Every structure is written in structure tokens, then in C-alpha cells.
């Protein structure tokens, strides 16, 4: 106890000193004589603005922040570090929506990527109508990309649930949502990248050109290079969406219907452009921040009653979307009627709303604004995201959803939906289970000071349960405290990870916040 008190006192002192003064900074002073010096800030406000993230679980104050106005500024910084006798860490930070400090750079420099897109003359989203792709800066937000491509009647096909994330940030993890089962994750929708490696080289890469870098960077957690441009596939944009929720009281029917909806292409069951699913443990979550406005008042009441029905412990619902452009189909969509007739949800518990394409894709933003107003956005978020093989999803449901979380006082939003492995490229860095269908399980938790530790302990219990039960999950947005954990995560791909790191970031400069190699050296 004495030691831990001493440690926390020293730690606090370091934080205060780091914040107040740059004289302790370990950065070489020559850095401040480079041409980019005017874009490097060491003031308290700049340092604090990048010292934590959406997770609010870690604090890590860098020595400086770079506000680049061109990819060349990033190149200069990395080249300087790489060729210096004391290379220092550098982390690109997109919109800072990581959970565990992945975009931090203790004793180094954080690059505020979004400053690349500031300013009047910024022209960092270029649509090619003829080729149906867009060249977009890694710092751009997906919401801005959506609005720009829609001007041409085009749209990216694969999304995340929340669009106020940067292109570079989500391509560094994978980028998943209900469209993944149909169009693959966002990393499967990239044709080409411009990347600045840890040696300060600017390289264009694709599946045909410098393919090892292309495959490593996609899902690569910023370990091999910084994405300054991505070329992303576009397709014609729909105008409207049938946004659907179908309620289930047992996991078997719920998962069977989900799997039918993502089944063989060409089947009439494949009507949905988007398939997700959730378990609602608490009626308080019915109007949660993920889509506060979905249910009408009377539907809300019916759902509340069902969720709290004795013995159920909560309900599952499939969330689907069918895109359309024709105004006439607003009233009736015969194909959709037919499809709903094939599914086994609780009778009378199908809810359909017709909304615009933008309203559907940007549905989480309303919730964000409300939480921000209440001061409940910037609180700790001990999220846990796993990919679970289909063969064990019922065991997982019994042990985790109906087991560990059934006694939880704050389970939070629980996502559970299947994806097809054949829509992924296993050579990319995001790790996925070794089965044709696997489920994503997302535990999106909002903590208070009182229940944070309880939630962290529950997350650990879930992982322990899987390990003991032999469920071969992969963490999505992975976080491990030890190299052993990372080696297990990468499995057979660990040696390739090391080889790519040695080739493209031999001084271990980039994105140290993931702590993949910090205990390795
Ligand atoms: P940051 O958090 O700033 O950075 C993330 C990582 O990428 C860091 O390691 C950083 O160093 C690196 N990085 C950043 N920019 C670049 C770049 N240009 N080149 C190379 N590396 C870079 N994920 C999903 O897949 N689906 C979802 O539906 C989804 N919903 C979310 C909803 C919310 C409210 C939040 C907070 C997160 C959600 N996420 C989701 C997770 C999110 O996709 C990741 O955390 C993503 O990395 C965040 O992007 P960012 O721009 O904030 O990146």
C-alpha cells in the first residue's frame, strides 16, 4: 500500500511537471529548429487535448503535438525521429475514439491528424464518378465523406455505427457494422493507400503494389505507417431506408434468423443491406444513445413490458435495414412483407420506420449530442468487443449474456450479430476467428466512478469464462497488457507482425499506445 501510494504521488508529480513545463521534455531540441517547428505545440492545452480518449481509462501526456497542414509535415517529423540518435515515439490521433490510449505517445509526439483537413483550401475528398471511388484524406470524418459523396449520388458501402470517426482511425482497426455481412468490413473496401512508414518513407500501396504494407496497415493499429490517403469503393446511393427491429425471446430463433438473413447471395432472404442484433437487458436502454428516437411512445411501452416480463431476463432484437430509392415503396414493400413472413420473431413485435439514408447512417449522433449536453459523454467507457465463432455462440450466450451479465447492475448496450468470413481478407491485420460465420459481441458500457471497477472485473470474467470454456474468440479493438496476450491474439500471424514491424517501423516509433511491443524489447 505504501509503495502504491508512493507510485501514485510520483506519477501525479510527473503529470504536473510535464504539463507545466517543457524543460523536462525528452525530445531533441533540434526538432524545434525544423521547418515544421511552428506547427509543433507544447502548451498545456494542446498536450491535455490528446492525453486521454473516449475510453477515459488512461492518461498519457506527450511532450508535444504536431498540427500538420500537409502529409509532408508528417513525413518530416517521422524522418527526423527515425534518423535521430534517440528516436522518439509518434502516434497519429484521428478523432481520439479509442478506449485504451491507443493513440497516445508518452514522451513523444502525437500528430493531430484532423488538422490536415482544416482550412479553406483543403481539398482532401475527391470523388471519381467514372471509376466509382473516392480518394479521401486519412484525417477525414466518415460523416463528411458521406455528405461529399452524396453530392454525386454515390456512397461508400461499408460503415461503422457511428460516423464521427476518422477514415484512418477505423481503417486501423477494421470498421464494422450491420453492412459488414454483405459488403465486408471497411478494410475490405479499400483499393489503395498512401502511407508514411516508421522510416519516414511515403509509399503508395494496394493489393498489387507494395502489397505487404497494404495488408499490414489495414487493421494494423497504426503500427506500420500513417494513412494519409485512402481510395475507397463507392456505389450508387439509396435515398431511403426501411429501418426494422424484430423481437425475439430466445437465442436459438434469434441467431437462426440472423444467420438466414446473411445467408447465400441471391436468396430472397438476402434482402437486408444491414443486419445487426442486440440483447436488451434493461428497459432503460430502449431509448439509449445508439438510437434514442426509434420507438414511438406506444411501441416503447409495449417493449418495456416485454423486457421486464418475469422469467425472460431481457429480449433479443434483430436490427435490419433495407435501402430503397423509390418513394412509392414507402407504403408497402412486397418483398419485405414476404421476407418478414419467413422469420420467427414474436408475433406483432416487428417495428419498421422509414427514414432517409443519412438519418439512418448518422443515427448515433443524436444520442451523442444528448449525452454531451448532460455531461455523460466524457465519462469512462470500459468497452469489450469480441468476435465469437458461430459454433460456440450458444455457449457464449449461456455463460456471458444469461450468466455473468444477468447479475450485472450495469450491463450496458449488448450487441450480437453475425458476419461472413469470406467478406474479410485474412491477410490483413485485423484478427478474426477461424470459422465461416462468426459473431461480433459488443459490450458498450458507460461507467461512473462507483461502478467502473465492477465493469472492468466483469469484462475480465467474460474473458476468463471464454478461456476456460475453450471459446476461441478474437478481441476486436484489441487490448492486452502483456506480450504473451498479443502473441496469442496474433497466433500464427505473430511472426509476420514482427517481420512487418522490422521492415516498416524498425525503431518502434509508431503508435506505442497499443503497447504491443513495449514489454517485448
Ligand atoms: P483514434 O482513436 O484517434 O486512433 C485509433 C488508432 O488508429 C490509434 O492506434 C491511432 O494511432 C491509429 N490511427 C489514427 N489515425 C491513423 C492514420 N491516419 N493512419 C494510421 N493509424 C492511425 N468501430 C467499429 O468498427 N464499428 C462501430 O460501429 C464503432 N462504433 C463506435 C462508436 C463510438 C461512440 C466509439 C467511441 C467508437 C466506435 N468504434 C466502432 C471504434 C472505432 O472505430 C475505433 O476506436 C477507431 O479507431 C476510432 O477512430 P478515431 O478516428 O477516433 O481514431
Automatic annotation (TrEMBL):
PROSITE patterns: FAD_PCMH
EC number: 1.5.99.12
Keyword Oxidoreductase: yes
Subunit and interaction comment: Monomer.
Signal sequence range: none
InterPro entries: Cytok_DH_C_sf, Cytokinin_DH_FAD/cytokin-bd, FAD-bd_PCMH, FAD-bd_PCMH-like_sf, FAD-bd_PCMH_sub1, FAD-bd_PCMH_sub2, FAD-linked_Oxase-like_C, FAD-linked_Oxidoreductases_BP
Top-rank taxon, per record: Eukaryota
Family named by the database record: Belongs to the oxygen-dependent FAD-linked oxidoreductase family.
Cofactor(s) needed: FAD
UniProt keyword list: FAD, Flavoprotein, Oxidoreductase
The protein's name in its UniProt record: cytokinin dehydrogenase
Molecular function via GO: cytokinin dehydrogenase activity; FAD binding
Stretches assigned to the FAD-binding PCMH-type domain: 58-237
GO biological process, one term: cytokinin metabolic process
Entry keyword annotation includes Transcription: no
Amino acid at each position: 500500500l505504501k509503495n502504491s501510494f508512493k507510485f501514485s504521488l510520483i506519477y501525479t508529480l510527473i503529470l504536473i511537471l510535464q504539463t507545466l513545463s517543457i524543460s523536462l521534455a525528452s525530445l531533441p531540441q533540434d526538432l524545434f529548429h525544423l521547418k515544421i517547428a511552428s506547427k509543433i505545440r507544447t502548451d498545456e492545452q494542446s498536450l491535455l487535448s490528446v492525453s486521454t480518449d473516449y475510453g477515459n481509462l488512461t492518461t498519457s501526456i506527450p511532450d508535444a503535438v504536431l498540427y500538420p497542414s500537409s502529409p509532408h509535415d508528417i513525413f518530416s517529423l517521422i524522418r527526423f525521429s527515425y534518423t535521430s540518435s534517440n528516436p522518439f515515439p509518434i502516434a497519429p490521433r484521428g478523432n481520439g475514439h479509442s478506449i485504451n490510449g491507443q493513440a497516445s505517445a508518452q514522451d513523444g509526439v502525437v500528430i493531430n491528424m484532423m488538422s490536415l483537413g482544416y482550412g479553406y483550401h483543403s481539398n482532401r475528398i475527391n470523388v471519381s464518378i467514372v471509376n466509382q471511388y473516392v480518394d479521401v484524406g486519412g484525417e477525414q470524418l466518415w460523416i463528411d465523406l458521406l455528405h461529399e459523396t452524396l453530392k454525386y449520388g454515390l456512397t461508400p458501402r461499408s460503415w461503422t455505427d457511428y460516423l464521427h470517426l476518422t477514415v484512418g482511425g477505423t481503417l486501423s482497426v477494421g470498421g464494422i457494422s450491420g453492412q459488414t455481412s454483405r459488403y465486408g468490413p471497411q478494410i475490405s473496401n479499400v483499393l489503395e493507400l498512401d502511407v508514411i512508414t516508421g522510416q519516414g518513407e511515403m509509399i503508395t500501396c494496394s493489393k498489387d503494389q507494395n502489397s505487404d504494407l497494404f495488408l499490414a496497415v489495414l487493421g494494423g493499429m497504426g503500427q506500420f505507417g500513417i494513412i494519409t490517403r485512402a481510395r475507397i469503393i463507392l456505389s450508387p446511393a439509396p435515398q431511403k431506408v426501411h429501418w426494422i427491429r424484430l423481437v425475439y425471446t430466445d437465442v436459438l430463433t434469434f441467431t437462426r434468423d440472423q444467420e438466414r438473413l446473411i445467408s447465400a447471395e441471391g436468396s430472397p432472404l438476402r434482402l437486408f443491406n444491414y443486419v445487426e442484433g442486440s440483447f436488451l437487458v434493461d428497459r432503460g436502454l430502449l431509448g439509449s444513445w445508439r438510437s434514442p428516437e426509434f420507438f414511438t411512445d406506444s411501441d416503447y411501452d409495449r417493449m418495456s413490458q416485454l423486457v421486464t416480463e418475469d422469467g425472460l431476463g431481457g429480449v433479443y432484437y434483430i436490427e435490419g435495414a433495407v435501402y430503397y430509392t423509390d418513394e412509392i415503396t414507402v407504403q408497402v414493400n412486397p418483398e419485405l412483407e414476404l421476407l418478414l413472413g419467413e422469420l420467427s420473431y414474436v408475433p406483432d413485435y416487428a417495428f419498421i420506420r422509414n427514414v432517409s439514408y443519412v438519418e439512418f447512417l448518422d443515427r448515433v449522433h443524436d444520442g451523442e449530442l444528448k449525452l454531451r449536453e448532460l455531461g455523460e459523454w466524457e465519462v469512462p467507457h470500459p468497452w469489450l468487443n469480441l468476435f465469437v465463432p458461430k459454433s460456440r455462440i450458444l455457449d457464449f450466450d449461456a455463460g456471458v449474456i444469461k450468466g455473468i451479465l444477468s447479475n450485472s447492475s450495469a450491463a450496458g448496450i449488448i450487441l450480437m450479430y453475425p458476419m461472413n468470413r469470406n467478406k474479410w481478407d485474412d491477410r490483413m491485420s485485423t484478427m478474426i476467428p477461424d470459422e465461416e460465420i462468426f459473431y461480433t459481441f459488443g459490450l458498450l458500457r458507460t461507467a461512473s466512478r462507483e461502478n467502473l471497477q465492477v465493469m472492468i472485473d466483469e469484462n475480465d470474467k467474460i474473458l476468463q469464462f471464454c478461456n476456460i470454456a475453450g471459446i476461441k474468440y478474437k478481441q476486436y479493438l484489441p487490448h492486452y497488457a502483456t506480450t504473451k496476450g498479443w502473441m496469442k491474439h496474433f497466433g500464427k500471424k505473430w511472426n509476420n507482425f514482427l517481420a512487418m514491424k522490422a521492415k516498416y517501423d524498425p525503431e518502434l516509433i509508431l503508435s506505442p499506445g497499443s503497447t504491443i511491443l513495449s514489454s517485448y524489447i
